[in-house]
Amino acid sequence: MDLKDILDAKLKIIDDALEQYLPKEKNCQDIIFESMRYSVFAGGKRLRPILMLAACEFADGKIEDVLPFCCAIEMIHTYSLIHDDLPAMDNDDFRRGKLTNHKVYGEGIAILAGDGLLNYAYELMLKAILQNPVNWERKVAAMYEIASASGIYGMIGGQVIDLLSENKQIDGETLDFIHLHKTAALIIASIRAGAMIGGADETMMACLTEYGKNVGLGFQITDDILDIVGNEEKLGKKVGSDIENQKATYPSIHGMEKSVQKVQELFHKSVSAMEQYHEKAEFFIRLADYLVKRDY
């Protein structure tokens, strides 16, 4: 089957679940539900939940066990985008080709929508564990993986250094820290959490973790490249924002040629991490190729 067809099928499973889980009732605070849903359903590749779903399936786990966690990781990712777009952060007007949340609902509601998605993600995971406590230890471990990757030692930590590094000259080591924590951490956690819920053994966990680290970093470096040479219509956001905000990127520190070479190196490392699983790993290998070779 074509990779796009596989991705579309998994995306539909996740979107249907998000539609079911996200609140939409009408009451006095329904503006927050509307704002949350606006950003969640504004588009996007659903990369993190797809990776989590695929990792669970790879470990022979059940879709129904992992699906609430897939939705939770997408809510956490979306919250981070809403807050990232705020005037105090990246100050972006468009995301995925649509007006950013604060441009539609105002800064106050946008902040609360992000807070709401983050909190609701944990409500959803805890409720799933309470309602289906089979293999609850795996699910709690997966939840901890998601929490730590999203927090001050993961995504938020990366965002902090990213914010503090604006308008400054930083070295490659600092940039790697930003990319590995701000972007790759949640990608790695998505894969690890899915594998945990599926019951993966230590060898499989190690291979998937190495895969996630290389794909996550390659994905972000590709984003750095596309911010310079990408097509705004295809990307759904403004090109050149990193330069405008005076943010350090792989091309600005290492040059474009070395950045492209680094992406290729990370792709080969991600493939090597999964080679022992042969045909069973085909989806992950094809996905890595797609993610790190996007239109440049």
UniProtKB/TrEMBL annotation:
One of its GO terms (biological process) is terpenoid biosynthetic process. Its cofactor is Mg(2+). The keyword Ligase does not apply. It comes from the Bacteria. SUPFAM superfamilies: Terpenoid synthases. Belongs to the FPP/GGPP synthase family. NCBIfam families: FPPsyn. This is Farnesyl diphosphate synthase. It comes from Thermotalea metallivorans. The lineage of its organism: Bacteria, Bacillati, Bacillota, Clostridia, Peptostreptococcales.
